[in-house]
Amino acid sequence: MDTKRVVADFEDWREAVAEAVALLENGGLVALPTETVYGLAADAFDAEAVAKVFEAKERPSFDPLIVHIGHKRDLDIVAKVPKELDEIVDELVSTYWPGPLTLVLPKKEDVPELVTSGLETVAVRMSAHEVMRAVAKEIPVAAPSANRFGKISPTSADAVMEELGGKIPMVIDGGACRDGLESTIVAPEISEKGPVLRLLRPGPISREDLRKIAKVIKPKKTKADHIEAPGQVKSHYAPTTPLVVIDKPTDFVAEEGVKYGLLSYRGEGNSSLMEATDWAHIEIMSPGKGKLAEGAVRLFYCLRKLDAAGVDIIISESVSETGIGVAMMDRLRRAAAGSEQ
Ligand code: AMP
Ligand code: MG
Asked: Which among 21, 55, 204, 279 is least surrounded, fewest beta carbons within 10 Å?
């Protein structure tokens, strides 16, 4: 199959959206830009279309999808918000939607089981990207990241083409993603002391941001062979090249004859590995002094370039685990775990 690439520029993104909606209404798939990473969308209420998402991504059916809606009021179409959570959900939605925050809530009966992998909960979000939002206003879509399962998430239409070109009918090219890392996922829950937020996946909305609304608690522990809250698949976002994350510069000792690539945070400074060996390829996450925010936007892009550079091992520096740095280290560790297999 040929993958049609439609550029959603300032002039004609509405036309691109109309074309995407027509395709989705006919049970087709479209890769769409969001502020986090590109998503692979299908009509959320069409189980056959959703099955095609799993097929294109080679994704196991135990890993549920996120449903994107276009209006806050559409939350009722996919989720049943329990009375006790009404207030906290309202606060989260009015503070962070549209934006990179996904809420896990009890699902409405007619959301297909395939979307939620048989769970009684559904993950919902409202994207801040005008293209995804315009599409979701017409038709709520189930849209996981537009990459093959376990691989590096795509933050550009080029990356989508590398991952899924020839396997899907259309991608809308909306340029580079603003945040560059997947949405924060939280499950609001009731505890003895009132509502709490169970943080299932760190992301652009930081723990500090969430704490302003309620107490933040850890995800439940999952056993390797039994996934209860699928947000925690240990290996993910993985390059094909082995990746090793270095905590402190002294932990890295280069071996003779190995071609190393470096993923550096800022390319300089005390904790930098720039001078540690004769690197075959270097990518710098934040070359423009943009710090963690810039690093987050460029992390998957840099990882993809290093993976294509023909090195034997990719070595990554660590970043400080504050704000978006928590999500960056989460992705790097899972990418390293995935590349070992
Ligand atoms: P992706 O968009 O590819 O990052 O995939 C969506 C992710 O959302 C899944 O891997 C899960 O981690 C998470 N997710 C979706 N639905 C649920 C749910 N009902 N409970 C917990 N996590 C979920
Ligand atoms: Mg993904």
From this structure: 55
Q: Is the pLDDT at 225 greater than 50, yes or no?
A: no
Residues 199 and 255 in one domain: no
121 CA from centroid of ligand 1 (Å):
10
Determine if the peptide bond prior to 140 is cis (ω within 30°).
no
Q: Does 186 contact ligand 1 (Cβ within 6 A)?
A: no
The H or E element containing residue 86 is: helix 86-96
Same domain, 169 and 312: no
Structure confidence by residue, pLDDT tens digits, 152-196 = 999 999 999 999 999 999 999 999 999 999 999 999 999 998 999
* Beta carbon of 227 within 6 Å of any ligand 1 atom: no
Looking at the fold, whether 95 and 201 belong to one and the same domain comes out as: yes
